[in-house]
Amino acid sequence: MRRRRLTVVLLGIIAALAIPALSGAAPIPGNTITPQGFFRFCADAQETIANVDSAKLTENGGDFTITNSLYKSLDDFVYSKSSVTTATKKINDSQWTLYEDAQQTQPKLLRCKLRTGESFTAGAWPNGSTNNSARFVVEPAYGFGSAGTGLSTNPSTDQQCRVVNQATIDNVWGSLSNGQKNSAVYNPTSSNLPSANANTLVTVADTVVFDGPGWTPSVAAITTSGSVAQVGSRALVANSNSTGNPRFEGAHYCTLVAPEFLKRVILGQVAPS
Amino acid sequence: MIKTVPKNRLTQRIALAIVGVLAATGVMTMTQQAAQASTITVPFQCSFNAPALNAVYDLGISDYAVTMTSPLVVEYGTSFSATYSFPAINPNLPFDITGAQVRAEPKIDVRKQSGSILFAVSSSTGAVSTAATISAGGAISAPGPVSVIVPTTTSTGSTQNFDIGDKLELIPDEFKYVFTATDDANLAGATVDCQPQSTSTYATRTTVNQTPPASPVSGCTAQTAGSTGGAGCATEQVLFASVAGGVLTQRAYTNTTPTSGSTSGATVNANNSATSVNLGTVQTPLTTATVTGHINDIEVTDTRGGTFGWSLTATINNFTGDSGHSLNKSALKATPSCSISTTSNAYDYTQTTPTLLTGFNASLVAPGQSAGSAAQSFAGTVSLCTKNTDENLVSQSTGGLYFVQSTIELTLPPFLAADRYTTTLTITLT
To answer: How many independent structural domains does chain B possess?
Structure first.
């Protein structure tokens, strides 16, 4: 009994220490099967990835908004691009969810098309640049120009997608009961637990690609290395003015584990995949 | 030789028999009611909007079928209803929505027939559903059908009133499910927005009629004293004219164009009556041979006086020879043409010989006829001509005279057995 109490206290301290590291970042939802979690997952990830100063967002009294367009069709999602709407100061992200089940009630992995922090202060595309087609046409601008100054607190260095995955791990782990933690198959903490050794659930560095065809193929949400479950991300990063094809630029894409799937893996209900 | 058999009269007889049966069983009443309404089913594509969360979910739903119905005829000065009927829609959301109350909000645009400017927009809200939980993966529904009230004399923002005799087109616009309440404040203002997915215009059509006075005035007094001033007075005489619907017919007329690829011999190489097609004579060929001829001309006359389409098709059986040989029907191909009749071929269908109509005006014939494709094989049914429901703007009907011709090409294999090959060409108008 005493040991269990001590464990709880230690975890509390770990959680408290983790907060400064995420200062300024969005609280990543611990699930995607609530309206808030489902509709805002990538928008919240956007805050983290681009080091968005949350005080600049409308919900905190600022004048920027992150909107999220979700697609059921993977083809439509592939055609979509992240973008900005300068007149209304909107960052427009895209989201697609891979489900475990045909009924689409158990999310497994999310794909997010986000903007880079450096793009916020970039201006319009060069004249004559090719846009997307039909309903996927976007405003021909990388970012907001000077109006975007300060929107990112560190525009030169985006966060890796793994930071979002780590926040998901923290949230999911934090939502478990002590009984669930003690019977967990994988353990993200540095303390051994009755059924899982310490540090058997980790994030790994992003696998970075530089074009859509490299990012679109199927990817595992969680892999294993021995007894350790590894949550990775395939990322696409294309800074403004980097490829000569502006409609693909200012883009930071991530594949991210769905909290519900992560929880099921931790509890041993499904195998990592 | 091919014998031609027009078949439309038989078809009509069958139709009449069916109507008789329906009337006897009481179904006729429903049929008549349906005939007095204009109904269309429109495919929509839909998205889920969550404005409080700054999110839009493209549901990837297409061909969501919404049906809109409006009356065929309304009285001038009286508003009327266009009715939306709609099935439940499944957005496949991965979460429950508890305490959900939903209503439908259809919207229509109104314009005069073929006008380019919409001059009225009407919308309506349906009843709100009782609070319930929409389970993850479950469908959203709302009480329906929902009627949209359309004013006929004026409307907000209108620059032009409807006039007596106007034919209105009611065009389905956005259709929405609106969440009026849920337990989750994040879904405040959430909607499922459906837009007509086709760029082509769908519309029901409603004609504005004049309402005759219930008690026409036959006498009045213009002045009661003096010889100047006064408002004058008016009497009324209600004029009636009825136009009864006519018929849809076809009649064949002899096409005497000689064939190519054959000669006169055992048979002539040109048609000698409206019911025979003579492809001439060829010698048993050393290599594949082709004979090209014409079926007899056909004129379709439509005086039904409404909005109807039609179709003219042709079939044959395998050719059989007098000496017992045969030739597969796929050896024959047709390339039809179909056009609005002209003053030189607009015949009176009641006459068995070509008798030109006096005063025929081709500009009053409804457009929308189209010939079947070229080189259609008689292995199946050949489409000679179809007419859609485009109306003539003056006649306001789909009626007219249409002249249908077709070349036919018979392919004869090498060393084909000498014989006299015959089949019957059956031409069906429906």
So the answer is: 2
Contacts of residue A259, defined as CB under 8 A and 6 or more positions apart, other chains included, come to: A29, A30, A31, A32, A37, A107, A168, A171, A172
Task: Answer whether 0.90 is exceeded by the pTM.
Answer: no
| A251 within domain boundaries | yes
Whether residue B83 sits in one domain with residue B185: yes
The reply to whether B250 and B201 lie within a common domain is no
Q: What pLDDT digit, counting tens, does each position of A245-273 carry?
A: 999 999 999 999 999 999 999 999 999 99
Q: At what angle do helices A161-175 and A2-21 cross, to 10 degrees?
A: 150
- Is residue B70 within 8 Å of residue B38, measured between CB atoms? yes
This model of the complex carries an ipTM of: 0.87
| Residue A89 belongs to domain spanning | 2-266
DSSP per position, B266-322: SS-SS--BTTEE---B-PPPSS-EEEEEEPPEEEEEE---SS--EEEEEE-PPEEET
Alpha-carbon distance A133 to nearest alpha carbon in chain B (angstroms): 17
Cα gap A205→A256, rounded to integer Å: 12
Residue A230 lies in a domain: yes
* Contact predicate A249/A241, CB 8 Å: yes
Helix axes A161-175, A259-266, angle to 10 degrees: 60
- Chain A residues lying within 8 Å of B58, measured CB to CB: 69-73, 76
> Can you give the residue range of the structural domain that contains B335?
245-429
Instruction: Kindly report, residue by residue over A90-124, the tens digit of the pLDDT.
Output: 999 999 999 999 889 999 999 999 999 999 999 99
Q: What is the CATH number of the domain that holds B162?
A: 2.60.40.10
Nearest to B58 among A33, A34, A69 (CB): A69
Exposure letters A114-132 (e unless 16+ CB within 10 A, then b):
bbbbbbbbbbebeeeeeee
Domain match, B411 and B275 both: yes
pLDDT in tens, B363-378: 999 999 999 999 999 9
In total, how many domains does chain A have?
1
Q: Which residues in chain B are contacts of A76 at CB distance < 8 A?
A: 58, 60
| Count of helix runs (H) and strand runs (E) in chain B | 2, 25
Chain A hits for B54, Cβ within 8 Å = 40, 43, 65-68
